[in-house]
Amino acid sequence: MSVPRAARALDVLLALAGLVLAAALLTWRTALPAGPLTALRPEDVVVAAAPLLAARWWLAPPRVGPARPGRVVAIAVAAYAAVFSFVAVARHWSFRTHALDLGQYAQNMYHLARGVPPVDTILGWHAWGNHLSPIFYPLAPLTLVLPGPAHLLVLQSVALALGAVPVYLLARPRVGDRLAAALAALYLAHPSLHGINVRDFHPAALAVPLLLAAMWAAEAGRWPLFWGATVLALATREDAAIAVVGLGLWLALARRRPLLGAALAVASVGWLFVAVHRVMPAFRDDGAYPYIAAHYAHLGTTLGEVLLSPLTRPLAVLGAVASWPRVTYVLALLAPLGFLPALAPVASAGALPALAQNVLSDYPVLFWYRTQYQSFVLPFLVVGAVAGVERLARAPAPPWLARPRLRPGPVLAAAALAAIVLSARTVNELAVSSWWPRPSLRAAHALLARVPPGATVSAADPFFPHLYDRADVHLFPRALPRSEWAVVRAADLGVRAPRGLEVRRDGDLVAFRPAGGGPVTMRVVGEAGDVLLLRRAGAQ
Q1: pTM
Q2: Which ranges of 395-468 would DSSP assign to H, the alpha helix?
Q3: In the chain, where are the structural domains located?
Protein backbone atom coordinates (compact mmCIF):
# COMPACT_ATOMS: atom_id res chain seq x y z
CA MET A 1 0.00 0.00 0.00
CA SER A 2 1.59 3.30 -1.12
CA VAL A 3 1.91 6.19 1.27
CA PRO A 4 0.22 9.44 0.09
CA ARG A 5 2.54 12.26 -0.87
CA ALA A 6 1.05 14.49 1.84
CA ALA A 7 1.82 11.83 4.43
CA ARG A 8 5.44 11.69 3.27
CA ALA A 9 5.64 15.48 3.59
CA LEU A 10 4.31 15.21 7.13
CA ASP A 11 6.94 12.57 7.89
CA VAL A 12 9.60 15.11 6.93
CA LEU A 13 8.02 17.77 9.16
CA LEU A 14 7.78 15.33 12.07
CA ALA A 15 11.44 14.39 11.62
CA LEU A 16 12.35 18.08 11.73
CA ALA A 17 10.22 18.49 14.85
CA GLY A 18 12.17 15.61 16.39
CA LEU A 19 15.45 17.38 15.66
CA VAL A 20 14.14 20.63 17.15
CA LEU A 21 12.97 18.72 20.23
CA ALA A 22 16.40 17.14 20.63
CA ALA A 23 18.00 20.59 20.37
CA ALA A 24 15.56 22.02 22.91
CA LEU A 25 16.29 19.19 25.35
CA LEU A 26 20.01 19.92 25.02
CA THR A 27 19.86 23.70 25.31
CA TRP A 28 16.75 24.71 27.26
CA ARG A 29 17.30 26.40 30.60
CA THR A 30 14.64 27.01 33.21
CA ALA A 31 16.03 30.49 33.72
CA LEU A 32 15.31 31.25 30.05
CA PRO A 33 18.50 33.17 29.13
CA ALA A 34 18.54 35.29 25.99
CA GLY A 35 18.50 33.48 22.67
CA PRO A 36 15.79 31.94 20.48
CA LEU A 37 16.82 28.32 21.06
CA THR A 38 17.63 28.35 24.76
CA ALA A 39 14.21 29.88 25.46
CA LEU A 40 12.36 27.17 23.48
CA ARG A 41 10.65 24.83 25.91
CA PRO A 42 10.60 21.14 24.93
CA GLU A 43 6.89 21.02 25.79
CA ASP A 44 6.16 23.70 23.16
CA VAL A 45 7.78 21.56 20.48
CA VAL A 46 5.71 18.55 21.53
CA VAL A 47 2.46 20.54 21.48
CA ALA A 48 3.28 22.01 18.05
CA ALA A 49 4.06 18.56 16.65
CA ALA A 50 0.83 17.00 17.94
CA PRO A 51 -1.40 18.33 15.08
CA LEU A 52 1.17 17.09 12.56
CA LEU A 53 1.08 13.66 14.16
CA ALA A 54 -2.73 13.65 14.10
CA ALA A 55 -2.80 14.61 10.40
CA ARG A 56 -0.22 11.94 9.59
CA TRP A 57 -2.24 9.27 11.35
CA TRP A 58 -5.42 10.41 9.61
CA LEU A 59 -3.88 10.23 6.14
CA ALA A 60 -2.20 6.87 6.63
CA PRO A 61 -2.66 5.06 9.95
CA PRO A 62 0.46 3.23 11.08
CA ARG A 63 0.52 -0.49 10.41
CA VAL A 64 1.15 -2.38 13.63
CA GLY A 65 3.19 -5.55 13.32
CA PRO A 66 2.37 -8.90 14.96
CA ALA A 67 3.88 -7.99 18.33
CA ARG A 68 2.69 -9.91 21.36
CA PRO A 69 0.44 -7.55 23.34
CA GLY A 70 1.56 -8.92 26.69
CA ARG A 71 5.18 -8.27 25.78
CA VAL A 72 4.30 -4.75 24.66
CA VAL A 73 2.70 -4.07 28.05
CA ALA A 74 5.73 -5.45 29.89
CA ILE A 75 8.07 -3.21 27.86
CA ALA A 76 5.81 -0.19 28.44
CA VAL A 77 5.74 -0.84 32.19
CA ALA A 78 9.53 -1.18 32.36
CA ALA A 79 10.04 1.94 30.22
CA TYR A 80 7.66 4.02 32.34
CA ALA A 81 9.27 2.85 35.59
CA ALA A 82 12.77 3.60 34.29
CA VAL A 83 11.97 7.03 32.82
CA PHE A 84 9.96 8.32 35.76
CA SER A 85 12.37 6.92 38.33
CA PHE A 86 15.10 8.84 36.51
CA VAL A 87 13.01 12.02 36.39
CA ALA A 88 11.96 11.82 40.05
CA VAL A 89 15.47 11.10 41.34
CA ALA A 90 16.91 13.85 39.11
CA ARG A 91 14.43 16.32 40.59
CA HIS A 92 15.56 15.28 44.05
CA TRP A 93 19.26 15.55 43.17
CA SER A 94 18.75 19.06 41.79
CA PHE A 95 16.95 20.26 44.96
CA ARG A 96 13.48 20.35 43.42
CA THR A 97 11.81 18.17 46.02
CA HIS A 98 10.30 19.61 49.17
CA ALA A 99 10.14 19.35 52.92
CA LEU A 100 6.39 18.77 52.89
CA ASP A 101 5.64 15.45 51.25
CA LEU A 102 9.00 13.83 50.42
CA GLY A 103 10.99 15.18 53.38
CA GLN A 104 8.37 14.59 56.03
CA TYR A 105 7.37 11.14 54.75
CA ALA A 106 11.00 10.01 54.53
CA GLN A 107 11.50 11.26 58.09
CA ASN A 108 8.36 9.43 59.28
CA MET A 109 9.50 6.08 57.87
CA TYR A 110 13.07 6.58 59.06
CA HIS A 111 11.80 6.96 62.62
CA LEU A 112 9.35 4.05 62.36
CA ALA A 113 12.06 1.70 61.10
CA ARG A 114 14.13 2.48 64.18
CA GLY A 115 11.32 2.08 66.68
CA VAL A 116 10.96 5.81 67.29
CA PRO A 117 7.53 7.52 67.22
CA PRO A 118 7.21 9.32 63.87
CA VAL A 119 7.17 12.88 65.18
CA ASP A 120 6.84 15.29 62.26
CA THR A 121 9.32 18.08 63.00
CA ILE A 122 7.78 20.30 60.30
CA LEU A 123 4.39 20.37 62.01
CA GLY A 124 5.63 19.69 65.51
CA TRP A 125 3.56 16.61 66.40
CA HIS A 126 3.05 12.93 65.60
CA ALA A 127 2.83 12.14 61.88
CA TRP A 128 -0.62 10.55 62.26
CA GLY A 129 -1.93 13.95 63.27
CA ASN A 130 -1.29 15.15 59.72
CA HIS A 131 -2.23 12.11 57.63
CA LEU A 132 -3.02 8.60 58.82
CA SER A 133 -0.90 6.28 56.65
CA PRO A 134 -0.48 2.86 58.29
CA ILE A 135 1.05 1.61 55.04
CA PHE A 136 4.26 3.23 56.28
CA TYR A 137 4.75 0.33 58.71
CA PRO A 138 5.52 -2.29 56.02
CA LEU A 139 7.43 0.27 53.94
CA ALA A 140 9.58 1.66 56.75
CA PRO A 141 12.11 -1.24 56.88
CA LEU A 142 13.28 -0.24 53.40
CA THR A 143 15.02 2.74 55.01
CA LEU A 144 17.29 0.32 56.87
CA VAL A 145 18.82 -0.99 53.64
CA LEU A 146 18.25 1.78 51.07
CA PRO A 147 19.92 5.13 51.80
CA GLY A 148 18.20 8.45 51.23
CA PRO A 149 14.61 9.19 50.21
CA ALA A 150 15.33 8.48 46.53
CA HIS A 151 14.14 4.90 47.02
CA LEU A 152 10.66 6.23 47.83
CA LEU A 153 10.59 8.04 44.49
CA VAL A 154 11.63 4.87 42.68
CA LEU A 155 9.09 2.81 44.64
CA GLN A 156 6.34 5.24 43.64
CA SER A 157 7.35 5.16 39.96
CA VAL A 158 7.46 1.37 39.87
CA ALA A 159 4.12 1.06 41.69
CA LEU A 160 2.38 3.45 39.29
CA ALA A 161 3.91 1.64 36.32
CA LEU A 162 2.65 -1.72 37.61
CA GLY A 163 -0.89 -0.33 37.56
CA ALA A 164 -0.86 -1.05 33.82
CA VAL A 165 -0.82 -4.79 34.55
CA PRO A 166 -4.30 -5.03 36.15
CA VAL A 167 -5.60 -2.67 33.46
CA TYR A 168 -4.39 -5.10 30.80
CA LEU A 169 -5.63 -8.18 32.67
CA LEU A 170 -9.04 -6.61 33.29
CA ALA A 171 -9.47 -5.45 29.68
CA ARG A 172 -8.15 -8.54 27.89
CA PRO A 173 -11.22 -10.79 28.30
CA ARG A 174 -13.48 -7.87 27.41
CA VAL A 175 -11.85 -6.33 24.33
CA GLY A 176 -9.06 -8.67 23.29
CA ASP A 177 -5.31 -8.59 23.68
CA ARG A 178 -4.47 -5.74 21.33
CA LEU A 179 -7.03 -3.24 22.59
CA ALA A 180 -6.21 -4.25 26.18
CA ALA A 181 -2.56 -3.45 25.53
CA ALA A 182 -3.57 -0.09 24.02
CA LEU A 183 -5.63 0.74 27.10
CA ALA A 184 -2.73 -0.18 29.39
CA ALA A 185 -0.49 2.14 27.36
CA LEU A 186 -3.12 4.88 27.54
CA TYR A 187 -3.11 4.55 31.33
CA LEU A 188 0.67 5.00 31.36
CA ALA A 189 0.37 8.05 29.11
CA HIS A 190 -2.25 9.81 31.22
CA PRO A 191 -1.05 13.28 32.32
CA SER A 192 -2.61 12.85 35.77
CA LEU A 193 -0.43 9.80 36.36
CA HIS A 194 2.63 11.84 35.35
CA GLY A 195 1.61 14.70 37.61
CA ILE A 196 1.20 12.34 40.56
CA ASN A 197 4.59 10.83 39.84
CA VAL A 198 6.69 14.00 39.65
CA ARG A 199 5.20 15.81 42.67
CA ASP A 200 7.56 14.30 45.24
CA PHE A 201 6.28 11.21 47.11
CA HIS A 202 2.72 10.65 48.31
CA PRO A 203 1.38 7.52 49.98
CA ALA A 204 -1.95 8.20 48.24
CA ALA A 205 -0.22 7.46 44.92
CA LEU A 206 0.14 3.83 45.97
CA ALA A 207 -3.67 3.58 45.98
CA VAL A 208 -3.69 3.80 42.16
CA PRO A 209 -2.29 0.30 41.44
CA LEU A 210 -3.99 -1.10 44.55
CA LEU A 211 -7.47 0.03 43.46
CA LEU A 212 -6.85 -1.24 39.92
CA ALA A 213 -5.69 -4.57 41.32
CA ALA A 214 -8.78 -4.77 43.54
CA MET A 215 -11.13 -4.20 40.57
CA TRP A 216 -9.35 -6.80 38.46
CA ALA A 217 -9.42 -9.26 41.36
CA ALA A 218 -13.17 -8.73 41.81
CA GLU A 219 -13.78 -9.42 38.12
CA ALA A 220 -11.52 -12.48 38.21
CA GLY A 221 -13.15 -13.80 41.39
CA ARG A 222 -9.90 -13.62 43.36
CA TRP A 223 -11.40 -12.35 46.57
CA PRO A 224 -8.40 -12.76 48.91
CA LEU A 225 -6.45 -10.52 46.53
CA PHE A 226 -9.37 -8.09 46.38
CA TRP A 227 -9.54 -7.73 50.15
CA GLY A 228 -5.78 -7.48 50.51
CA ALA A 229 -5.54 -4.71 47.90
CA THR A 230 -8.55 -2.91 49.40
CA VAL A 231 -7.13 -2.92 52.94
CA LEU A 232 -3.77 -1.67 51.67
CA ALA A 233 -5.50 1.08 49.70
CA LEU A 234 -7.31 2.15 52.88
CA ALA A 235 -3.96 2.20 54.67
CA THR A 236 -2.42 4.74 52.29
CA ARG A 237 -4.24 7.73 53.81
CA GLU A 238 -7.30 8.47 55.89
CA ASP A 239 -9.23 9.94 52.95
CA ALA A 240 -8.53 6.84 50.85
CA ALA A 241 -11.77 5.70 52.50
CA ILE A 242 -13.53 7.96 49.98
CA ALA A 243 -11.96 5.99 47.14
CA VAL A 244 -13.01 2.73 48.77
CA VAL A 245 -16.57 4.11 48.97
CA GLY A 246 -16.20 4.45 45.18
CA LEU A 247 -15.00 0.85 45.03
CA GLY A 248 -18.16 -0.21 46.85
CA LEU A 249 -20.24 1.83 44.42
CA TRP A 250 -18.47 0.12 41.51
CA LEU A 251 -19.13 -3.31 43.03
CA ALA A 252 -22.80 -2.51 43.52
CA LEU A 253 -23.47 -1.04 40.07
CA ALA A 254 -20.90 -2.39 37.62
CA ARG A 255 -20.45 -5.85 39.17
CA ARG A 256 -24.07 -6.12 40.40
CA ARG A 257 -23.14 -7.05 43.94
CA PRO A 258 -25.24 -4.47 45.79
CA LEU A 259 -25.02 -5.98 49.28
CA LEU A 260 -21.24 -6.35 49.18
CA GLY A 261 -20.80 -2.91 47.64
CA ALA A 262 -23.09 -1.23 50.16
CA ALA A 263 -21.39 -2.97 53.07
CA LEU A 264 -17.97 -1.88 51.83
CA ALA A 265 -19.13 1.71 51.33
CA VAL A 266 -20.73 1.91 54.79
CA ALA A 267 -17.66 0.40 56.46
CA SER A 268 -15.41 2.89 54.63
CA VAL A 269 -17.51 5.89 55.71
CA GLY A 270 -17.42 4.57 59.27
CA TRP A 271 -13.64 4.25 59.15
CA LEU A 272 -13.36 7.79 57.75
CA PHE A 273 -15.38 9.19 60.66
CA VAL A 274 -13.29 7.25 63.20
CA ALA A 275 -10.00 8.36 61.61
CA VAL A 276 -10.97 12.02 61.22
CA HIS A 277 -12.84 12.55 64.49
CA ARG A 278 -11.16 10.12 66.86
CA VAL A 279 -7.79 8.72 65.82
CA MET A 280 -6.05 11.69 64.19
CA PRO A 281 -7.09 14.41 66.68
CA ALA A 282 -5.55 12.29 69.43
CA PHE A 283 -2.14 12.77 67.80
CA ARG A 284 -2.44 16.58 67.46
CA ASP A 285 -1.78 19.31 69.97
CA ASP A 286 -4.91 21.16 68.89
CA GLY A 287 -7.11 18.02 68.81
CA ALA A 288 -8.55 18.89 65.40
CA TYR A 289 -8.58 17.57 61.85
CA PRO A 290 -7.46 20.60 59.82
CA TYR A 291 -8.41 19.76 56.25
CA ILE A 292 -12.18 20.12 56.53
CA ALA A 293 -11.95 23.76 57.61
CA ALA A 294 -9.07 24.42 55.20
CA HIS A 295 -10.76 22.99 52.09
CA TYR A 296 -14.52 22.86 52.74
CA ALA A 297 -15.38 25.74 55.09
CA HIS A 298 -17.95 27.00 52.54
CA LEU A 299 -19.87 23.72 53.01
CA GLY A 300 -19.52 23.07 56.73
CA THR A 301 -17.17 22.68 59.66
CA THR A 302 -17.50 18.92 60.26
CA LEU A 303 -17.31 15.85 58.06
CA GLY A 304 -21.03 15.20 58.53
CA GLU A 305 -21.96 18.74 57.45
CA VAL A 306 -19.81 18.44 54.32
CA LEU A 307 -21.32 15.06 53.40
CA LEU A 308 -24.84 16.46 53.81
CA SER A 309 -24.09 19.74 52.02
CA PRO A 310 -25.78 18.67 48.73
CA LEU A 311 -29.03 18.62 50.76
CA THR A 312 -28.37 21.47 53.17
CA ARG A 313 -26.44 23.86 50.90
CA PRO A 314 -27.42 22.91 47.33
CA LEU A 315 -26.66 26.33 45.85
CA ALA A 316 -23.13 26.35 47.25
CA VAL A 317 -22.57 22.85 45.90
CA LEU A 318 -23.99 23.74 42.49
CA GLY A 319 -21.90 26.89 42.31
CA ALA A 320 -18.73 24.92 43.02
CA VAL A 321 -19.45 22.10 40.58
CA ALA A 322 -20.50 24.39 37.73
CA SER A 323 -17.47 26.69 37.90
CA TRP A 324 -15.28 26.83 34.81
CA PRO A 325 -12.02 25.70 36.52
CA ARG A 326 -13.76 22.56 37.73
CA VAL A 327 -15.34 21.88 34.35
CA THR A 328 -11.96 22.15 32.62
CA TYR A 329 -10.50 19.91 35.30
CA VAL A 330 -12.99 17.14 34.49
CA LEU A 331 -12.39 17.63 30.76
CA ALA A 332 -8.63 17.31 31.32
CA LEU A 333 -9.21 14.01 33.13
CA LEU A 334 -11.47 12.59 30.42
CA ALA A 335 -9.78 13.82 27.21
CA PRO A 336 -6.68 11.58 27.58
CA LEU A 337 -9.10 8.66 27.87
CA GLY A 338 -11.02 9.66 24.74
CA PHE A 339 -14.09 10.49 26.88
CA LEU A 340 -14.66 6.74 26.91
CA PRO A 341 -15.75 6.70 30.59
CA ALA A 342 -18.75 8.82 29.53
CA LEU A 343 -19.88 5.93 27.31
CA ALA A 344 -19.97 3.64 30.34
CA PRO A 345 -21.27 5.75 33.24
CA VAL A 346 -22.16 2.73 35.37
CA ALA A 347 -18.63 1.31 35.13
CA SER A 348 -17.19 4.79 35.86
CA ALA A 349 -19.43 5.50 38.84
CA GLY A 350 -16.71 4.59 41.30
CA ALA A 351 -14.95 7.85 40.46
CA LEU A 352 -17.86 9.97 41.73
CA PRO A 353 -16.99 10.09 45.48
CA ALA A 354 -13.38 11.15 44.87
CA LEU A 355 -14.44 13.56 42.12
CA ALA A 356 -16.87 15.13 44.57
CA GLN A 357 -14.10 15.37 47.15
CA ASN A 358 -12.06 17.40 44.64
CA VAL A 359 -14.60 19.59 42.87
CA LEU A 360 -16.41 20.57 46.06
CA SER A 361 -13.21 21.88 47.62
CA ASP A 362 -12.23 25.53 47.45
CA TYR A 363 -8.53 24.54 47.39
CA PRO A 364 -7.49 24.78 43.69
CA VAL A 365 -4.80 22.12 43.96
CA LEU A 366 -7.48 19.47 44.45
CA PHE A 367 -9.09 20.19 41.09
CA TRP A 368 -5.88 20.50 39.10
CA TYR A 369 -5.45 17.41 36.93
CA ARG A 370 -1.70 17.01 37.57
CA THR A 371 -1.74 16.60 41.36
CA GLN A 372 -1.68 13.66 43.74
CA TYR A 373 -5.35 14.25 44.53
CA GLN A 374 -6.23 12.42 41.32
CA SER A 375 -4.95 9.16 42.82
CA PHE A 376 -8.47 8.25 43.99
CA VAL A 377 -10.15 9.27 40.71
CA LEU A 378 -7.92 7.96 37.91
CA PRO A 379 -8.26 4.18 38.56
CA PHE A 380 -12.06 4.29 38.20
CA LEU A 381 -11.92 6.42 35.04
CA VAL A 382 -9.44 3.98 33.47
CA VAL A 383 -11.75 1.04 34.24
CA GLY A 384 -14.62 3.10 32.82
CA ALA A 385 -12.57 3.60 29.65
CA VAL A 386 -12.20 -0.19 29.38
CA ALA A 387 -15.98 -0.53 29.51
CA GLY A 388 -16.31 2.30 26.97
CA VAL A 389 -14.03 0.51 24.51
CA GLU A 390 -15.98 -2.70 25.06
CA ARG A 391 -19.17 -0.87 24.20
CA LEU A 392 -17.67 0.57 21.02
CA ALA A 393 -16.21 -2.75 19.96
CA ARG A 394 -19.31 -4.87 20.54
CA ALA A 395 -22.29 -2.60 20.08
CA PRO A 396 -23.94 -3.04 16.66
CA ALA A 397 -24.29 -0.01 14.46
CA PRO A 398 -27.82 1.45 14.56
CA PRO A 399 -29.75 0.99 11.28
CA TRP A 400 -30.26 4.72 10.86
CA LEU A 401 -26.51 5.46 10.87
CA ALA A 402 -25.47 6.19 7.31
CA ARG A 403 -21.73 6.29 8.01
CA PRO A 404 -19.68 3.50 9.59
CA ARG A 405 -19.95 3.58 13.36
CA LEU A 406 -17.15 4.86 15.51
CA ARG A 407 -14.46 2.28 16.11
CA PRO A 408 -12.16 1.99 19.15
CA GLY A 409 -8.96 2.59 17.16
CA PRO A 410 -9.59 6.23 16.17
CA VAL A 411 -10.94 7.04 19.64
CA LEU A 412 -7.84 5.62 21.31
CA ALA A 413 -5.64 7.49 18.85
CA ALA A 414 -7.42 10.77 19.64
CA ALA A 415 -7.04 10.01 23.35
CA ALA A 416 -3.31 9.40 22.88
CA LEU A 417 -2.93 12.76 21.14
CA ALA A 418 -4.80 14.51 23.97
CA ALA A 419 -2.50 12.77 26.44
CA ILE A 420 0.56 13.97 24.52
CA VAL A 421 -0.62 17.58 24.59
CA LEU A 422 -1.73 17.59 28.24
CA SER A 423 1.39 15.81 29.49
CA ALA A 424 3.84 17.73 27.29
CA ARG A 425 5.31 19.58 30.26
CA THR A 426 6.66 16.25 31.51
CA VAL A 427 9.11 16.32 28.60
CA ASN A 428 10.78 19.37 30.16
CA GLU A 429 12.02 17.09 32.93
CA LEU A 430 14.19 15.28 30.37
CA ALA A 431 16.03 18.47 29.39
CA VAL A 432 19.74 18.17 30.14
CA SER A 433 19.62 21.24 32.38
CA SER A 434 17.05 19.46 34.58
CA TRP A 435 19.31 16.57 35.51
CA TRP A 436 22.93 17.16 34.57
CA PRO A 437 25.14 16.92 37.72
CA ARG A 438 26.72 20.36 37.45
CA PRO A 439 29.75 21.19 39.64
CA SER A 440 27.66 23.63 41.68
CA LEU A 441 25.18 20.85 42.51
CA ARG A 442 27.95 18.47 43.50
CA ALA A 443 29.48 21.15 45.70
CA ALA A 444 26.10 21.81 47.35
CA HIS A 445 25.69 18.12 48.14
CA ALA A 446 29.18 18.10 49.63
CA LEU A 447 28.13 20.99 51.89
CA LEU A 448 25.09 19.11 53.14
CA ALA A 449 27.23 16.05 53.86
CA ARG A 450 29.16 18.13 56.40
CA VAL A 451 26.13 18.29 58.70
CA PRO A 452 26.80 15.49 61.23
CA PRO A 453 24.19 12.76 61.90
CA GLY A 454 23.50 13.88 65.48
CA ALA A 455 23.06 17.54 64.63
CA THR A 456 20.16 19.86 65.28
CA VAL A 457 19.73 21.66 61.97
CA SER A 458 17.34 24.23 60.51
CA ALA A 459 17.11 23.65 56.75
CA ALA A 460 15.40 25.59 53.99
CA ASP A 461 12.67 23.75 52.10
CA PRO A 462 14.68 22.16 49.21
CA PHE A 463 17.38 20.89 51.59
CA PHE A 464 15.12 19.29 54.19
CA PRO A 465 14.61 16.04 52.18
CA HIS A 466 18.40 15.63 52.02
CA LEU A 467 18.79 16.01 55.78
CA TYR A 468 15.72 14.06 56.90
CA ASP A 469 17.81 11.50 58.80
CA ARG A 470 19.60 13.97 61.06
CA ALA A 471 18.76 13.63 64.72
CA ASP A 472 16.75 16.83 64.93
CA VAL A 473 15.99 18.57 61.62
CA HIS A 474 13.52 21.43 61.20
CA LEU A 475 12.22 23.62 58.42
CA PHE A 476 14.05 26.98 58.41
CA PRO A 477 13.69 29.17 60.43
CA ARG A 478 11.93 26.83 62.87
CA ALA A 479 14.09 25.80 65.85
CA LEU A 480 16.79 28.25 64.74
CA PRO A 481 17.55 29.42 68.32
CA ARG A 482 18.59 25.90 69.34
CA SER A 483 20.09 24.73 66.03
CA GLU A 484 23.84 24.33 65.71
CA TRP A 485 23.62 24.20 61.91
CA ALA A 486 21.53 25.84 59.20
CA VAL A 487 21.37 25.28 55.44
CA VAL A 488 19.78 28.05 53.39
CA ARG A 489 19.84 29.76 50.04
CA ALA A 490 21.45 33.19 49.85
CA ALA A 491 18.05 34.74 49.10
CA ASP A 492 16.76 33.39 52.44
CA LEU A 493 19.06 35.92 54.09
CA GLY A 494 17.86 38.76 51.88
CA VAL A 495 14.89 39.33 49.58
CA ARG A 496 13.24 35.99 50.44
CA ALA A 497 13.82 36.06 54.19
CA PRO A 498 10.90 34.36 56.00
CA ARG A 499 8.26 36.71 57.36
CA GLY A 500 8.93 37.80 60.92
CA LEU A 501 12.64 36.93 60.77
CA GLU A 502 15.11 39.79 60.96
CA VAL A 503 18.39 39.03 59.19
CA ARG A 504 21.59 41.06 59.13
CA ARG A 505 24.73 39.80 57.43
CA ASP A 506 28.21 41.19 57.98
CA GLY A 507 30.73 39.21 55.97
CA ASP A 508 30.62 35.61 57.20
CA LEU A 509 28.61 36.48 60.31
CA VAL A 510 24.81 36.34 60.09
CA ALA A 511 22.64 37.70 62.89
CA PHE A 512 19.07 36.41 63.15
CA ARG A 513 16.27 37.68 65.34
CA PRO A 514 13.20 35.43 65.14
CA ALA A 515 9.83 36.96 65.97
CA GLY A 516 9.38 36.87 69.73
CA GLY A 517 12.83 35.37 70.29
CA GLY A 518 16.33 36.42 71.16
CA PRO A 519 19.22 37.01 68.72
CA VAL A 520 21.04 34.10 67.08
CA THR A 521 24.45 34.55 65.49
CA MET A 522 25.78 32.03 62.98
CA ARG A 523 28.81 31.92 60.75
CA VAL A 524 28.93 30.95 57.07
CA VAL A 525 31.28 27.94 57.01
CA GLY A 526 30.63 26.81 53.45
CA GLU A 527 29.22 28.16 50.24
CA ALA A 528 28.34 26.54 46.91
CA GLY A 529 26.65 28.88 44.46
CA ASP A 530 23.63 30.24 46.32
CA VAL A 531 23.67 27.45 48.93
CA LEU A 532 25.06 28.47 52.32
CA LEU A 533 26.05 26.25 55.23
CA LEU A 534 25.94 28.09 58.56
CA ARG A 535 27.09 27.03 62.00
CA ARG A 536 26.42 28.68 65.34
CA ALA A 537 29.15 31.18 66.08
CA GLY A 538 31.64 29.84 68.61
CA ALA A 539 30.80 26.15 67.97
CA GLN A 540 33.76 23.86 67.44
Answers
A1: 0.93
A2: 408-422, 432-435, 439-449
A3: 5-63, 69-394+408-419, 439-536
